[in-house]
Amino acid sequence: MYTNKVKKIAAVHDLSGMGRVSLTVVIPILSTMGFQVCPLPTAVLSNHTQYPSFSFCDLTDEMPRIIAGWRKLGVQFDAIYTGYLGSPRQARIVGGFIDEFRHADSLTVVDPVLGDNSRLYSNFDMEMVAEMRQLIKKADVITPNLTELFYLLDLPYREHNTDEELKEYLRRLSEAGPEIVIITSVPVQDDPHKTSVYAYNRQGDCYWKITCPYLPAHYPGTGDTFTSVITGSLLQGDSLPMALDRAAQFILQGIRATFGYEYDNREGILLEKVLHNLDMPIQMASYELI
Ligand code: PXL
């Protein structure tokens, strides 16, 4: 019998001490949205990998022990949400974890964290890309940025793509498995201060686009922020376009709260100043059906 009083989310991400990425973003956002976050940590780092150096403790060997502990407890998760993985071998461990712990009503979100700004993050290689291509097949929802999209599709990076091309990419990724595909950080032609998010829901065969007045790539961790809000919003029962609006609005609020300070962007947006907004109703409706 199903007994979670508060929905449980297994969060498969690293723990980075500095720089507001992964678990340090996922936990506060999803807790604020009313969920119990159960971390399955992939690695422990001093700081994220966009700083020039970082310590890195790979937890690949520990993960099966954590999963075995959860098996023994008989834990049931309402969602599994994965992000930054510490090694290619982890992708297979996580795939097995999803196969074992998912059930008919759960939501599986895979954020295929690989890179940004057309390049892979510093300790990733093509083996990680190959494993991620397998892992996304198990997801209900995936949220690649434009860089990750091209790696997943094995196509050369292209900054400018038409709506029709982006729709084709969305469809192709969805054919691999996920019902919902969301591409973030898509540059807007002739407007360097904006980015778009494109989304596809195979159920209903609908495409959505939302254009945001900010450049998330300037702040590490905005991808994690975005996918966390999407995950929480879908679990709360919102529609896909409503979830997209909530995530985009929250990041805009975070960036606005950060502007105006003398600040090292590598630390990410000042999340703590805007977390309470997650309880507020949506104030803008900027999505379009395309
Ligand atoms: O937000 C993505 C991310 C997560 N975890 C680590 C990272 C990054 C991006 O740089 O380095 C460790």
List keywords for this structure.
single chain, 290 residues, alpha/beta, UDP-N-acetylmuramoyl-L-alanine:D-glutamate ligase, nine-stranded mixed sheet, three-stranded mixed sheet, 8 helices, 14 strands, binds 3-hydroxy-5-(hydroxymethyl)-2-methylisonicotinaldehyde
Please give a structural write-up:
The chain is α/β, with parallel strands linked by helices and 290 residues long. The protein has a single domain, classed as UDP-N-acetylmuramoyl-L-alanine:D-glutamate ligase (3-Layer(aba) Sandwich). 34% of the residues lie in helices and 22% in strands. It is built from eight helices and 14 strands. Strands 3-1-6-7-10-11-12-13-14 form a nine-stranded mixed β-sheet, sandwiched between helices. It has a three-stranded mixed β-sheet with strand order 2-4-5, with no helix packed on it. Strands 8-9 form a two-stranded antiparallel sheet. Strand 6, helix 3 and strand 7 form a beta-alpha-beta unit. The mean pLDDT is 94. The chain binds 3-hydroxy-5-(hydroxymethyl)-2-methylisonicotinaldehyde. 3-hydroxy-5-(hydroxymethyl)-2-methylisonicotinaldehyde binds next to helix 7.
